[in-house]
């Protein structure tokens, strides 16, 4: 099975907000024909209307894939529209934070192939990363199909068990927001040191994007890349002594940040 299968059998996207549109944008750029896509969303955006996909139209009875991208709290209202597609070969993929596979088995039947996924918004530019885990009925072919679909918008990792999804959500699902906030903070700190706002933002954005690209491309670890920037008794060392402080620096703050997000993911299990 591959992406041609999705183009032939059709993809239904339930919920096309920030995450659904980020992925759809990536798939359409990757060549998925708009005619193969059906979107269900109460308030379609102008961008969505311009893509040529079918919006709130009659749905195929047995699409290749149904991608569920509504908020966990909306699940109860949203799933009935697609419940009849369960029990056959249609593969259900949910990107919802928190909502467990068991909730989808209850909605579509335990004999349906169901995959839970946690992507992130850099999928819009083909630079996402998604973790996936399937139920007992998601066979190797279906896991490969989901991986092929998600690989079109970035990297894919497979989890050993569903419990790991809360930690993944805290690290990479929510992670882009932490990095965007770091850009905001770095730019603001540059302004505080006397730089014009636009220039401070350009410096901060390019620094984070460039450091990320180097971290991915280089053979060295991020720790070594950090050392490479740090001249003994130089400017970076002075900055890192603040940032890396074990009590007040980034290490304890990041640990608390990821723990709070993962805890919220665990809480969301009961919000469907
Ligand atoms: N944003 C992110 O970075 C990530 C999000 N996720 C997950 O993706 C899912 C969507 O999140 P996100 O895109 O941020 O949220 P959004 O609110 O942006 O998107 C959800 C979309 O679903 C629509 N919707 C609401 N009710 C229904 C319904 N009954 N049927 C069909 N569509 C409906 C909403 O419309 P309206 O706004 O008009 O109500 C909205 O367009 C969540 O479960 C989230 O946990 C996962 C990884 C990352
Ligand atoms: O904030 C959220 O709940 C979703 C899940 C991961 C990113 N956004």
TrEMBL record:
All residue ranges annotated as the Pyrroline-5-carboxylate reductase dimerisation domain in the record: 162-268
Record keywords: Amino-acid biosynthesis, Cytoplasm, NADP, Oxidoreductase, Proline biosynthesis
Catalysed reactions listed for this entry: L-proline + NAD(+) = (S)-1-pyrroline-5-carboxylate + NADH + 2 H(+); L-proline + NADP(+) = (S)-1-pyrroline-5-carboxylate + NADPH + 2 H(+)
One Pfam family here: P5CR_dimer
InterPro entries: 6-PGluconate_DH-like_C_sf, NAD(P)-bd_dom_sf, P5C_Rdtase_cat_N, P5CR_dimer, Pyrroline-COOH_reductase
Pathway stated in the Swiss-Prot or TrEMBL entry: Amino-acid biosynthesis; L-proline biosynthesis; L-proline from L-glutamate 5-semialdehyde: step 1/1
Keyword Endoplasmic reticulum: no
Compartment(s) where it occurs, according to its Swiss-Prot or TrEMBL record: Cytoplasm
Keyword Transmembrane helix found: no
Domain Pyrroline-5-carboxylate reductase catalytic N-terminal positions: 12-98
A single GO molecular function term of this UniProt record: pyrroline-5-carboxylate reductase activity
Domain of life: Bacteria
EC number: 1.5.1.2
Family: Belongs to the pyrroline-5-carboxylate reductase family.
UniProt cross-references to NCBIfam families, sorted A to Z: proC
Function: Catalyzes the reduction of 1-pyrroline-5-carboxylate (PCA) to L-proline.
Protein name per Swiss-Prot or TrEMBL: Pyrroline-5-carboxylate reductase
């Amino acid at each position: 099975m591959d992406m041609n299968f999705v183009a032939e059998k059709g993809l239904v996207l339930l919920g096309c907000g920030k995450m659904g549109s980020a992925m759809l944008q990536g798939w359409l750029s990757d060549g998925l024909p708009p005619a193969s896509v059906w979107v269900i969303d109460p308030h379609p955006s102008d961008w969505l209307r311009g893509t040529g996909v079918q919006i709130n139209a009659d749905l195929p009875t047995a699409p290749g894939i149904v991608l569920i991208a509504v908020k966990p709290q909306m699940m109860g209202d949203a799933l009935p529209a697609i419940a009849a597609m369960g029990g056959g070969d249609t593969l259900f993929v949910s990107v919802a934070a928190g909502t467990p596979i068991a909730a989808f088995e209850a909605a579509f039947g335990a004999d349906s192939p169901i995959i839970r996924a946690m992507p992130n918004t850099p999928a819009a530019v083909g630079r996402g990363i998604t973790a996936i885990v399937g139920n007992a009925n998601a066979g190797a072919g279906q896991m490969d199909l989901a991986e092929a679909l998600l690989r079109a918008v970035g990297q894919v990792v497979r989890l050993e068990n569903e419990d790991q999804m809360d930690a993944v959500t805290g690290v990479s699902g929510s992670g882009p927001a932490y990095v965007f906030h770091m850009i905001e903070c770095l730019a603001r700190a540059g302004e505080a040191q006397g730089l014009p706002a636009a220039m401070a933002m350009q410096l901060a954005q390019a620094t984070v994007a460039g450091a990320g690209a180097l971290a991915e491309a280089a053979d060295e670890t991020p720790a070594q890349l950090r050392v490479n920037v740090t001249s003994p008794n130089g400017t970076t060392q002075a900055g890192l002594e603040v940032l890396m402080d074990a009590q007040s620096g980034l290490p304890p703050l990041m640990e608390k940040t990821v723990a709070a997000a993962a805890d919220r993911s665990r809480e969301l299990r009961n919000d469907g």
